[in-house]
UniProtKB/TrEMBL annotation, chains A, B, C, D, E, F:
UniProt similarity note: Belongs to the HyuE racemase family.
Database matches in Pfam families: Asp_Glu_race
Protein name: Asp/Glu racemase
Length: 251, 251, 251, 251, 251, 251
């Protein structure tokens, strides 16, 4: 049995969500897999806009670099926008998988089409962008918003009911075979929703964690011959210099 | 740790290849996973044409039905054409994964593009069809034939060298980040080729086995609400009646 | 006037449907064209699932081989899933045309978009797959199911009314210029439906028969330089050896 | 046997080419089909630019209107740019088919991909546009120019040799199953080139003529419910008023 | 400040609409830009069909040639079908821009998706064709017809209200970020509609005029190395010989 | 004449490049347009990887916010990866345009296809992503790297010669009508290269500046009804809180 260390990064700074994510990831890993979930030291409390996502990325990348130092064999980026994924692949030695890509690819093994159910309507464009990027634009038959803010998933007593109904409705209106949950904050709802609606429901956190575990088992990591080679070293101005040389230290 | 039984079906009737496939699949499964690889009782010795593939499918489906009877939790179809995959999903309770789809989706986590290296040039059209079907047409940057017949992979002393060179050349000409091996008969070459060319190389047999193991772990299987529900029961004439009623036995 | 022999294969084993198909095909051929319609000796009574289609294909291919022996100049595969089409092109000398491809290409000459009206909802995915494969995904504006089983088309007294209404509704909801009938069992309804709804309605059986007649007239057949060359001869285990060598007879 | 009148319009004003087109079309029609080929009374001597094509269209449409008056059952537009096709479908009662669309759709029945071999390089963009429009962009694997002007096809003693070599080269470089001749002026070369290169070669003139003959036989014509209904009647200024009211004659 | 002359061609022969177009174009140009709007001497009173468009093109091209003679630095084709655009680019020295392409590209800077609101339903196919041609098929989320004839935009007292409502409804049903007006005859409604619906509304006439002004400022014009080089000179029969040699004048 | 203030943001921190960018932008603006070019206070010295781009974005967004405060009417993001564009559109009142999108859309007015010539090969994937995102994937016929680092464009005496040759070669190999320069650092080379190769060459800095100027003139800005509305206000941890509330200041 292979022994490995997977680091799961929740790109927002809400540690209660990070704890839920860690529990959902741990529930599916093999005995030999050690798992740690963290939030970055800087960034937004939740990610609900392109702006939030942009500001979350430097913190995610700093955690990747810390994970490299700590010997992580692979990484999960646990926000459905997969923020910083390409950059993370450049700086990580092992595989890096986003929960949106893992969930969508996983859904593609379960039938012809899937629906995504997510939080706010303003994030649906990004979800469709990702489906397009991952080649799953045709498989992704619809992206549906519950209009529940990310952090309200933890506090709104009606959240589970609203998300469950949205999943059920999406199955029917899209003619889908499965539903993908479009937010890491929904990870703990997955089993119950699936039971309630009688159809496969995919939580990207668990899916991505197993994807990373499989890639490490297979000895596979990001190809490093071209676009995803380590980035050129260079000076960075201001406070953002985790990877390059600090400015003024060239000698 | 989850306990499960995965049945791997080699769609051709060459049992020496089936043994290799079983070894490659077993090398990556978790301790709790029982694995069996079989060939159908009828079908072609190798699959190198649409005609071969068409004649292999009924035997594959018969093995799915036997697996259902024997309590298999999931199935791998171990031929790069993924023969009978849609039909198998209709008749299996658990997930069914083809090695082409598993390999291609796995490759998509390793960078922007991959190359496929396969046996005969006449099968490259089918490989491209599958990439298109799985949404990975853009990610699949080239399909390259070695012009080695499937069964010669086991006997031709130059086979590994030729396949390795084709993989290396494909990386360069396609600008790819990874290589997918386009035949189950290449499964045992994977690690060595990867070491030789210095880039990720994906064997679909191992990738599909871990994909099924992950799906079973996640409690996921084919959506059964629509296209992939169990097929309507009906009479079948002639010798092909594994699932429906035998003709003349209606009452 | 060119003299030719076209063999029409109804992939299911319901000979009453075969007789209807033959009549519809004969109604449109030129005086010099001899036409025969058959069902395979083995296979499902109707094709309503991927499983049915997979089990129908070997019988279709056996009929192609018999037609080759009997001097057929071209073949029609008369089931809207076009089962076995690629394999048939490998083993036939003359052209082979499926009724879905013929109907869809024919519809493309009549305007910008067409609707497909078919039997069961579970087959609509396959129809969309074919539209995509034939390049007519954008032209195919909708695939609509009547939820009438294939064989009920012959027996249900309301079948024609239901299909006609579905065609009329599809024209409006899809904004289509024409309707394609999505089942060979609807061939004899074509003229009446067209008259009732006041729009072009395409029966694939007649369309495919004329397509084959035209290809033979033009001296055209499947290109045989690559993917569709005759398949490599090899041993086949079990009962499925129409084309290769019977196992144990190599000497 | 159905009796019909097909009018073939050569959009350029070179009547020697019109005669060749008529001979090639007549060679394939059924005994009951009457066929006439004409050139418009105004327009360019050959069509080798978007400008030429734009100026050819009014003459083509005038011939459609004359054909309507003369009882034509269907029309062929015999230039590989299919000039005026959409407009012709609005004003014709029977079907209208362009030679590019007929040739490309015909090629799609012969394998997975085809190459187009045409006259001047500057026209290849238009050929690719049409392949895209007809859904055959993937099937069309290459468009190759011989750099022979259209009218030189009739006079250049090397024309056949150059076109034949281009066809042979295209098959290899594109991995195609068939070749489409990209100019009506190549119609008479088709059989010889096919024999020389050992692969299917498609002349759009013959293909389009049989397509129209088949559509008329099937009782099919352009859908007239929407985009292709007869155009609204209105005043036309200047000399181009074949269909609308002449200006100043409204009372 | 750059000094230039932009010629705006309204492809229909309704000069009252030409005057409106000129006013809308002038309202946005820089001080150094001289602008003239004209209608061709021949052609339809409005463009509402493929037939109208085909008959409008020769007149548009004649105006391009007159503009070349008069020293125009660039051209706008002010009909939402962009009639004759490719041919105009062959014969013009400076840039030529259609109002549909300018409006759609402009809309793409304002968000993820736009809706088109146009006159008659029969023209929506052409609008979708253009969106596809310009690469903006995904960005173009819907094309909606008001069923107001082109010339009624000037006379129908309810026109503005109907168009405004259609724009508002399209925003909601398409989830669009902006609206493109699909007819040059709507140019003067743009500002008011935008104010009424509270979203960006794009008039192609103003957008195309500024696009041409920018291209001239940047020193950019149509690439002349291939498809858009000046067309080969040749004889034209009949009355359409603005560019080639008049027949019978070869010496 | 409209008076406006356009802020051009060079996302890297190399102010000598910012000065060049400002000069190129100023050269094309109208007399009433005030223009300022800046670099962010933090970020990488050049952008040559996904990692660099991710770390550049927070500084770009801070400059957008400063520009909002200073009354900027519109913004240009002057790096060919268009970093932070979606987020910038959320937080800016006026239009925001990236130089890659402006250059590519501009190229689409000049013919059928364009080539991109850029710095390092590892950035070509991002350029292709953007072409896809902007709908110009087919128009973008090739992306070619000179393998000159971004900052070496200012210092390498052979840079202009190498870039010019790459542009010339790209025109031929891609059959393109125009060339897009794939780095803001090439802005000052544009006119000379165009003269040298005899084809249109597009500098995105000038193109984007005129695009913003046109949008402001037309009164157009980002649609604010959905995805690009101002982001929800929320706490940001650490040092990245330009837009939301600083953590601990909620009362």
């Amino acid at each position: 049995m292979i022994s490995m260390f997977i680091k799961v990064i929740n790109p927002n700074t809400t540690w209660s969500m990070t704890a839920t994510i860690e529990a959902c990831a741990r529930a599916v890993t093999a005995p030999g897999t050690r798992l740690e979930a963290v939030s970055p030291r800087m960034g937004p409390a939740s990610i609900e806009s392109h702006y939030d996502e942009a500001l979350a990325v430097p913190g995610v990348l700093a955690e990747i670099l810390r994970g490299e130092r700590d010997g992580a064999d692979g990484f999960v980026i646990a926000c459905f926008g997969d923020p910083g994924l390409d950059a993370a692949r450049e700086i990580a030695t092992g595989p890096v998988v986003g929960i949106a890509e893992a969930a969508m690819h996983t859904a593609s093994f379960l039938g012809r089409g899937f629906s995504v159910v997510t939080t706010l309507g303003r994030t649906t464009g990004r979800a469709r962008d990702l489906a397009e990027r991952y080649g799953l634009r045709d498989a992704c038959r619809g992206v549906h918003a519950c209009e529940i803010p990310v952090l309200a998933l933890e506090t709104d007593p009606d959240a589970r009911k609203i998300v469950t109904e949205a999943c059920f409705d999406a199955l029917g209106s899209d003619g889908s075979d499965a539903v993908v949950l479009g937010c890491a904050g929904m990870a703990d709802l997955c089993a119950q929703i699936s039971a309630d609606i009688g159809a496969p429901v995919i939580d990207g956190v668990a899916a991505a964690t197993l994807t990373v575990q499989s890639l490490v088992t297979l000895g596979l990591t990001t190809g490093k011959r071209g676009e995803f080679a380590a980035p050129p070293v260079k000076p960075y101005s201001g406070l953002l210099a985790p990877f390059g040389r600090a400015e003024g230290t060239r000698g």
